[in-house]
């Protein structure tokens, strides 16, 4: 196995320019959520060029490349949609230029999150070149609509496509560390219903804006009181929008609504978060609700889910984490840092809902996500492509060893003291 790691490392370096070039091509194609069609076509082209066994696009628009045909399934996930570029005056270069310069690939999506898929395309090419023959199916998923609704794409893959992996690696940016969880989140509306009256006599009405304002101050206090987890950190809640309505600007507002961004640490749930807010408005004419997402993909399909994204946390001793540590050490002679994301990923569905063991390992630093002057080091892409290919080999080798041990144990238990098998054969 040591020899295979050396070969993988050499090939990832050999394909340095290939990986960077593929990422540059992806960056040049603007790909907002629900508008990923053309970047997905380019990803399909890259997978086919790399020699994948099968490449398809599902009904939601996720591109799924396959290598191998074993019973166990390993999946790599990277979302292909990006946020918009924002104020161009804040950029020192063309955000859609895909420029490769001074050891970096520049542009929107280089870190969040097309650098991961560019790297796993190269890892697939490496696996095919090495004649990967383990009893393992590997899916390489370029997913869609994550920026608008993280986890929706994997809800579709698992529930509609019937693909449920045994292990998943998210290629979201981790600064080449291994991440094993992050806080969950949910989006809530709190609507307040007042009574309108003429603005010259506000005492005759009940102002919904005042109710919302009083609640806003209580929510500010609540944020300071939320629990903290030693690994994932503190839960949080903030108001990101407030709107109101009245018959006219000469009338008391009879409606107001606040939008809450709630981040959930370990032990917090949808039910506990709802209860906290409902307690704050129990004496008001108000409604607290979790929002739904239901939008059209570029394929024309409408699909959705509740905007509750569960917290997830894989124990450091779990085999998927330990496998990642071994692979990193075999490749680079040192142990990786084990950490967590600050933001949210498709892990909210993959592990948070469906319980699939998962880690994150990706090129780029998450502090550049959604920021101007986003860029990723080409060396990060090289390291990531090596890690993904080596992880597949390590999982395949561990499965082979486990299968041999099981066979030996079965043979041992199938024999009696006179050397005959218990079944008489």
Walkthrough of the structure:
It contains 10 helices and 22 strands. The protein is α+β, with helices and mostly antiparallel strands and 425 residues long. The protein has 2 domains: 2-182 and 311-403, Aminopeptidase (3-Layer(aba) Sandwich), CATH 3.40.630.10; 184-296, Alpha-Beta Plaits. The longest helix is centred in the last third of the chain and has 36 residues, at 378-413. The chain is globular. A hairpin with a 5-residue loop joins β1 (54-57) and β2. Mean pLDDT is 95; it is low at 416-425. The strands form 7 sheets. It has a 6-stranded mixed beta sheet with strand order 1-2-6-3-7-21, with helices on one face. Strands 10, 13, 14, 15 and 18 form a 5-stranded antiparallel beta sheet that branches.
In short:
The protein is an alpha+beta fold and 425 residues long. 34% of the residues lie in helices and 23% in strands.
Major beta sheet, strand line-up: 1-2-6-3-7-21
Percent of residues in β-strands: 15-25%
Radius of gyration: 25 Å
End-to-end distance, in Å?
A: 37 Å
Based on the model shown, name its key terms:
Alpha-Beta Plaits; Aminopeptidase; 22 strands; disordered C terminus; six-stranded mixed β-sheet; alpha+beta; five-stranded antiparallel β-sheet; 425 residues
What is this structure's SSE topology?
Blueprint: H1 2-14, H2 16-27, H3 37-49, E1 54-57, E2 63-67, E3 72-79, E4 100-101, E5 104-106, H4 115-129, E6 136-143, H5 152-159, E7 167-170, E8 178-179, E9 181-182, E10 184-193, H6 208-225, E11 228-229, E12 233-234, E13 236-245, E14 255-264, H7 270-280, E15 286-290, E16 292-296, E17 302-306, E18 308-309, E19 312-313, H8 319-332, E20 338-339, H9 347-350, E21 358-360, E22 375-377, H10 378-413
Helix pairs in contact: 1-10, 2-3, 2-4, 2-10, 4-10, 8-10
């Amino acid at each position: 196995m040591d020899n295979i790691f050396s070969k993988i490392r050499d090939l990832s370096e050999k394909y340095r320019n290939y990986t960077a070039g593929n990422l540059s091509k992806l960056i040049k194609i603007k790909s907002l959520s629900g508008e990923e069609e053309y970047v997905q076509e380019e990803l399909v082209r890259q997978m086919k060029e790399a020699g994948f066994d099968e490449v398809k696009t599902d009904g939601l628009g996720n591109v799924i490349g396959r290598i191998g045909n074993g019973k166990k399934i390993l999946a790599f996930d990277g979302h292909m949609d990006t946020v918009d570029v924002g104020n161009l005056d804040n950029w020192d270069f063309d955000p859609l230029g895909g420029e490769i310069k001074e050891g970096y690939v520049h542009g929107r999506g280089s870190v969040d999150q097309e650098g991961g898929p560019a790297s796993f395309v190269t890892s697939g090419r490496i696996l095919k070149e090495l004649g990967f023959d383990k009893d393992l199916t590997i899916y390489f998923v370029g997913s869609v609509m994550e920026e608008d609704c993280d986890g929706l794409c994997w809800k579709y893959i698992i529930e509609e496509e019937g693909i449920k992996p045994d292990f998943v690696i998210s290629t979201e940016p981790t600064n080449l560390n291994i991440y094993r969880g992050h806080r969950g989140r949910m989006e809530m509306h709190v609507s307040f219903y007042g009574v309108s009256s003429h603005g010259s006599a506000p005492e005759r009405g009940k102002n919904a804006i005042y109710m919302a304002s009083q609640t806003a101050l209580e929510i500010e206090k609540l944020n300071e009181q939320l629990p903290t987890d030693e690994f994932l950190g503190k839960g949080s809640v903030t108001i990101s929008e407030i709107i109101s309505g009245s018959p006219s600007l000469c009338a008391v507002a009879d409606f107001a609504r606040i939008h809450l961004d709630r981040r959930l640490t370990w032990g917090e749930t949808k039910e506990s978060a709802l209860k906290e807010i409902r307690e704050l408005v129990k004496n008001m004419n108000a409604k607290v609700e979790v929002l739904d997402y239901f939008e059209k993909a570029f394929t024309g399909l409408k699909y959705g889910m509740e905007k509750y994204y569960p917290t997830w946390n894989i124990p450091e001793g779990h085999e998927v984490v330990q496998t990642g540590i071994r692979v990193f050490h075999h490749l680079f002679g040192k142990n990786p840092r084990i950490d967590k994301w600050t933001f949210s990923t498709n892990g909210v569905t993959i592990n948070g809902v469906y319980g699939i063991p998962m880690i994150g390992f990706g090129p780029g630093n998450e502090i550049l996500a959604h920021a101007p002057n986003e860029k990723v080091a080409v060396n990060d892409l090289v390291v990531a492509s090596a890690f993904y290919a080596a992880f597949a080999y390590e999982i395949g080798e561990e499965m082979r060893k486990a299968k041999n041990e099981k066979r030996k144990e079965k043979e041992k238990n199938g024999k009696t003291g006179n050397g005959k098998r218990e079944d008489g054969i």
